[in-house]
Amino acid sequence: MNYADLKAKGFMIGSGVVEAACKTLVTQRLKQSGMRWSVRGAQAILTPRGWDQSERFDKAWALVAATFHTDVTVLANVIAFKPESAPRKPRTKTSR
Questions:
Q1: pLDDT digits (tens, 9 = 90+) for 41-72
Q2: Rounded CA separation 48/58 (Å)
Q3: Phi, psi at residue 72, to the nearest 5°?
């Protein structure tokens, strides 16, 4: 790797920038208390977060939206289901 050439072209060659990006992009989002992630789940979170932090979200989302199509079926005559709550038992006084 020719560090002098890469630095002359404006590329960052130190690890500090990479480590800071890793901290703000990954650590702050995925390593909160009690969190566990699958590889697919983490990638689903980090991809749009990377777009946002690099100020490319709108452009990237437009590309995704232009290629994603699906059929949507609208259901008719749907009855809302709300489970009934269990009857309450009367409170009784207890002596201590």
A1: 999 999 999 999 889 999 999 999 999 888 88
A2: 10
A3: -115, 130
Report the SS3 class of residue 15: coil
Alpha-carbon gap, residue 94 to 78, rounded angstroms: 47
Per-residue exposure over 39-60, b if at least 16 CB sit within 10 Å of its own CB, e if not: eeeeeeebeebebeeeeeeeee
Tens of pLDDT, residue by residue over 11-21, are: 877 778 778 88
DSSP classification of residue 93: -
40 contacts 46 by C-beta, under 8 angstroms? no
